[in-house]
C-alpha cells in the first residue's frame, strides 16, 4: 500500500526541521557543512514514501534442552515515511527445568526498533550508517527501557553468490538505571542456497562492572520454501546470574517465514 497525502503545504518546512535536527545531533556544521546545502539536500527526504511499504515476518518454535519451549514471532516494515524502517520480535517462554509444563508459556521478552539510514552525503560518503531507537520489555516490574544509538550495516563476501552481511550497533544512551550502554552485532552468513547462519551477540555494559553477554547463533536449513529447520545455541548471562537458571543451552525446531 502506498501512503499519500494531499496536505503538501508544510512538507518543505518539515524537511528542513528534520534535517536541521540531524545536523545538530551529528555536529555537521562544525565540519564545514552549512545550512544552505543541507536544506537543498532535504528535498530528497521521503516525507511520503515513494515505494510500496513492505511487511515481512516469521514465527519460530523451539525445544530447548533445558526442558522448556520458546515461541518467537518477529516482523517489520520497510519503506516507511521519512525513510524509516521498523523491526521487532517477542520471545515467549515456558519455565526452565520443568519438563511436564514445557508447553505452558509463563514469561516473555520483546524488542522493537525504529531505524533511519542516513544519506551517505550527510556522513562523508559512508553507506549503511543510521540512527536507531529501541524499546525493550519483559515480564516483571520495571523491566522496560529505551535505547538510543547508531547502527552500521554492510555486506560481506563470505561465499561467492551467497548473501552475507554484518550489522553493528551501539547504544550509548539507555533509560534503565541498571545498564549504561550496549554494543551489539547481528549477522547473516550464507553457506548454500538453503543453508545459512544468522543471529546476534549483545554485550551489555552494566553498573558496577557486571557486564553480561546475550548471544544466539542460529543454523537455518530451508526444508521447503519458507519453512526452515533451526538449530540454535543460546547464551544468556542474565539468566546465569540466577542460581535457579542455566545460562547456556541448545534448542531446535522450525521457522515459518511469511
Q: What this model shows, in words?
A:
The protein has 258 residues and is mainly beta. It is 11% helix and 51% strand. It has 3 helices and 12 strands; from the N terminus they run ααβββββββββββαβ. It has a 12-stranded antiparallel barrel with strand order 1-2-3-4-5-6-7-8-9-10-11-12. A hairpin with a 5-residue loop joins β9 and β10 (212-224). α1 packs across α2. The longest helix is centred in the N-terminal third of the chain and has 16 residues, at 11-26. 12% of the residues are buried.
In short:
The protein is mainly β. It contains three helices and twelve strands, in the order H-H-E-E-E-E-E-E-E-E-E-E-E-H-E. 12% of the residues are buried.
Number of strands: 12
Largest sheet: 12 strands, antiparallel, barrel
Structural class: mainly beta
Q: Based on CA inertia axes, which overall geometry fits?
A: globular
Query: How far is the first residue's CA from the last residue's CA?
Result: 17 Å
Q: What is the topology, as strand order, of the major beta sheet?
A: 1-2-3-4-5-6-7-8-9-10-11-12
String of helices and strands: HHEEEEEEEEEEEHE
* Cα-based radius of gyration, to the nearest Å: 21 Å
**Unreliable residue runs:** 1-36
Proportion of beta-strand residues? over 45%
Proportion in helices: 10-25%
Average predicted local confidence, pLDDT: 85
- Count of DSSP helices? 3
